[in-house]
């Protein structure tokens, strides 16, 4: 990495290890390792340096994030998360589709929407309609079957300890988002209602639908309510409908995201767990109570 920096005429002013010291005696291939480099010099070479770094990151299967020093960089106050495939492993609507026997049809629509090939509201209505007749008792079975993404509990717990506000802004369903709110202590939750009539899913959709534009609107609303600047907001998501909120946040992070989102977002994390986002706000492993 230092060679790439030197090739572009910039200087490494400081190197700091944010992750804990890895044991050389024990092989731990899944352990997090993070190093922060502070770089200065002629900013005109920054675009080509970024391109070189990203190519190297792809080849080595590592994550590289770029941040400009500012008064807000270590003074974030709100984290807003997408839910499906960001806080939890998988998509709730796809799991509901399996229970309803329409998995193949729903998954195809979901994948198309997440890649940005289909407008979200249209895709959402089409998928929900396919769930018509699914018993409510089967819906509730999902609450304890979809696991959290690796590192989610550590991240949320640390953010709460540090006094951050947290939010779920999801194009998924309120019944699952409220469950996560209870489990993790999330401050704000906005998602879609799964309409149930006479004990079964109606297949109808209540409005307004939480799509990409609505997520950005809600993020602004929460920031105003908390009296904070959008520069102090971190937004995290994986799909095309997350791009509007990633774009207005001071730090927008594509987490294990679709190619379109990785290419568009200002930051992308693809290989580490969700708790690695703590490094992006300057938290070091040794700062945490559980650190050795």
Offer a quick outline of the entry.
The chain is 38% helix and 19% strand. It is of the alpha/beta class and 292 residues long. It is elongated and about 65 Å long.
List keywords for this structure.
two-stranded antiparallel sheet; Rossmann fold; Alpha-Beta Plaits; 10 strands; alpha/beta; 292 residues; 2 domains; single chain
Number of strands: 10
At the fourth level of CATH, the homologous superfamily of the largest domain is: HAD superfamily/HAD-like
The CATH topology of the largest domain comes to Rossmann fold
Major sheet characteristics: 6 strands, parallel
Mind telling me the CATH class of the largest domain? Alpha Beta
The run of helices and strands is: HEEHEHHHHHEHEEEHEHEHEH
Total helices: the number is 12
Please state the structural category.
alpha/beta
Helix content: 25-40%
Shape: elongated
N-to-C terminal Cα separation, in Å?
Answer: 28 Å
Please, what is the average pLDDT? Answer: 89
């Amino acid at each position: 990495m230092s060679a790439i920096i030197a090739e572009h005429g910039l200087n490494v002013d400081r190197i700091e290890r944010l992750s804990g010291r890895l044991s050389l005696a024990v092989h731990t291939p899944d352990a997090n390792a993070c190093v922060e480099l502070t770089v200065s010099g002629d900013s005109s070479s920054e675009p080509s340096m970024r391109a070189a770094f990203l190519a190297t990151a792809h080849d080595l299967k590592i994550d590289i994030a770029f941040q400009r020093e500012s008064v807000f960089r270590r003074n974030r106050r709100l984290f807003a998360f997408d839910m499906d495939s960001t806080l939890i492993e998988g998509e709730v609507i796809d799991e509901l589709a399996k229970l309803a026997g329409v998995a193949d049809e729903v998954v195809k629509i979901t994948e198309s929407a997440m890649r940005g090939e289909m407008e979200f509201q249209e895709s959402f209505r089409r998928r929900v309609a396919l769930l018509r007749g699914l018993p409510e008792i089967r819906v509730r079975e999902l609450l304890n079957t979809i696991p959290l993404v690796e590192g989610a509990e550590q991240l949320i717990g640390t953010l709460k300890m540090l006094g951050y506000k947290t939010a779920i802004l999801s194009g998924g369903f309120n019944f699952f988002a409220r469950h996560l709110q209870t489990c993790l202590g999330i401050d704000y939750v906005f998602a879609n209602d799964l309409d149930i009539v006479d004990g079964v899913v109606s297949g109808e959709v209540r409005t307004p639908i939480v799509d990409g534009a609505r997520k950005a609107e809600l993020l602004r609303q929460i920031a105003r309510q908390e009296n904070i600047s959008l520069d102090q907001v971190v937004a995290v998501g994986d799909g095309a409908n997350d791009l509007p909120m990633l774009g207005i946040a001071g730090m927008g992070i594509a987490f294990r995201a679709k190619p379109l989102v990785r290419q568009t977002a200002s930051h992308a994390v693809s290989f580490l767990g969700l708790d690695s986002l703590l490094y992006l706000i300057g938290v070091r492993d040794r700062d945490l109570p559980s650190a050795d």
